[in-house]
Design goal:
heterodimer; A: mainly alpha; about 70% helix; globular; B: alpha+beta; Alpha-Beta Plaits; 2 domains; 3-stranded antiparallel β-sheet; two-stranded antiparallel ribbon; about 25% helix; elongated
């Protein structure tokens, strides 16, 4: 249906040309191999660059919320501040702590980073910019992203430091609780779109994003997903695993240099991953805003390439998360668990039921109109 | 049933309070930024008049100050920042008179407590807000406050006037 619209700025042509060229000149195995390597390199590069952009954006927006200007010395408006920071962290000494459990201590950052890179690969960034399209995409993403908590627990446990340990335990309790809510919220949307595959999910949202399609139920699921996703990334009012006034830095207290950098990177990328899953599942992913029948309008929307749509939606969600982060004070651990087990989870369960009824009785917007 | 009602009202009350919190920060996002970009905005920088950065002795246009070298400031200074060095001179009619020779002030030891200014009976000294006092050597912090060749201002009708006396009365 939307192949009819002209899409001048998409990467589709580039990728299919590359694929054809490789297959023409090389045997099947090598063509596939080179493509895999290329995709891997691009993903890792995107990972690093996105983290740098996110850190810069976060620092700027944080500054604006606090009536400050933020970084503005390195380059115009301080755009090279994060580049300088990354260089600094790369050449910093990794301090070896004597009484840590060496193997686990050095393994922990990799668990974090691997979990977020694995999730990163499954995100549809744009039309044809989708590295791995599982038929159980939503399930895969929730499963793999929860591996990260192992890194946190290992870091806290192996550091041989009570602050790290408390931080890691809090983080574990928080993560396990909120993973449940996030999973249920995604499940609500799986009920609505009837598929777990990200690409199909996006196609089904071509004319009506899921958040509008399931109206009340979708909205509730969206809010719950944002809250629990926010809690999973250990940020904002839910940052008690690293509450600096109580635990110095929580689970990564003993880490320095590049290892700390890994935790830092993974934290920012997790924020991006949560936002992009929310954008994909609720806001139509890379799909432009289209209205059925308004061909001129739709064509206009398609002139904006899909990856811009995707990053626009993700940016909006990240801004929401920063806004929340700088608005609310940190929760106590009992308040945190109260919020999850007494409010989010029961509401979520009722919400799934409501969604099932909406879908079965044909009360979703696409069914009604 | 009552607890269920509390649960529901608590839920919506919570959401309402969270939203009002968000609206506060939303307004905060758009207000004027308060950051002072210091070395660049030196010309427009506003420092409060009450800020105490450096002790000065005010001299009028005739190079006259109001210090009678009584030494009260020196006595009141809690950590010996001020040294009033006086000399005895003789006036024409043969009277001996104490006069200020050097008024030495060590900025490096000053706690800016303002006791010297408060206790000065002739309001000869005051604190200004020129705050750029950093130097590379400690010696430079020891300053002589009375200007070269300055002398005591002749007594006026109101001796305890803080302001330098206007020209017409001279």
């Amino acid at each position: 249906m939307f192949q009819n619209y002209s899409q001048p700025l998409e990467f589709t042509n580039l990728t299919s040309w590359l694929d054809a060229a490789l297959r023409e000149n090389l045997p099947e195995f090598w063509a596939v191999f080179i493509e895999l390597v290329l995709v891997g390199v691009v993903l890792l590069a995107a990972y690093a660059v996105l983290a740098m952009i996110l850190i810069y954006v976060e620092r700027k927006i944080t500054a604006f919320f606090q009536a400050r200007i933020g970084p503005n010395r390195v380059g115009k408006y301080g755009i090279f501040q994060t580049v300088a920071d990354v260089l600094k962290i790369l050449i910093k000494e990794i301090i070896h702590v004597n009484k840590v459990d060496k193997f686990l201590f050095y393994a922990a950052p990799f668990f974090m980073i691997v979990a977020s890179v694995l999730t990163f690969g499954a995100i549809p960034f744009g039309k044809s910019l989708h590295a791995v399209d599982f038929n159980i995409g939503v399930f895969y993403v929730t499963a793999v992203s929860s591996l990260g908590i192992i890194g946190v627990l290992l870091a806290g446990w192996s550091s041989n430091n009570k602050y790290s340990m408390i931080g890691a335990m809090r983080s574990g309790a928080q993560f396990v609780s909120y993973e449940l809510s996030a999973g249920f919220a995604l499940m609500t949307m799986v009920v609505l779109s009837g598929t777990m595959q990200f690409s199909e999910m996006i196609e089904s949202q071509a004319y009506c994003w899921n958040i509008f399609n399931g109206h009340i139920s979708s909205l509730v699921a969206f809010v719950i997903y944002l809250i629990s996703g926010h809690a999973e990334t250990n940020r904002g009012p839910f940052d008690l695993p690293e509450a600096e006034s109580e635990l110095t830095a929580g689970y990564h207290t003993e880490y320095s240099g590049l290892q700390f950098g890994f935790f830092y990177l993974a934290e920012y990328l997790n924020m991006f991953i949560i936002a992009s899953i929310a954008a994909t599942v609720f806001l139509g992913g890379w799909m432009p805003l289209q209205i059925s029948g308004w061909d001129g309008f739709n064509q206009l929307m398609w002139y904006i390439p899909s990856y811009i749509w995707f990053f626009g939606k993700v940016g909006f969600l990240i801004f929401l998360s920063l806004w929340v982060r700088w608005s609310f004070p940190r929760l106590r651990i009992d308040q945190l668990l109260n919020l999850e087990w007494k409010y989010l989870l029961p509401i979520n369960l009722v919400n799934i039921l409501v969604m099932v009824i909406l879908v079965l009785t044909g009360l979703t917007l696409t069914d009604l109109f | 049933m009552r607890t269920f009602k509390q649960y529901i009202t608590g839920l919506f009350g919570g959401i309402k309070s969270l939203l009002s919190g968000l609206s506060v920060t939303w307004k905060e996002l758009w207000i004027k930024k308060v950051t002072q970009q210091y070395p660049e905005n030196r010309d427009t920088l506003v420092i409060s008049d009450r800020f105490r950065a450096e002790l000065v002795m005010s001299h009028d246009e005739n190079n006259e100050h109001a210090c009678t070298a009584c030494g009260i400031c020196e006595m009141n200074c809690p950590n010996g920042t001020i040294q009033v060095i006086s000399k005895m001179t003789e006036t024409e009619d043969g009277k001996k008179k104490k006069e200020l020779d050097r008024y030495v002030y060590d900025l490096g030891m000053c706690t800016f407590c303002n006791l010297c200014v408060i206790t000065c009976p002739s309001s000869a000294i005051k604190f200004t807000n020129h705050f750029e006092n950093a130097t590379f050597t400690r010696n430079k912090l020891v300053q002589q406050l009375n200007h070269e060749g300055s002398k005591l201002r002749a007594k006026k009708k109101e001796p305890i006037s803080a302001q330098p006396v206007p020209k017409e009365k001279e």
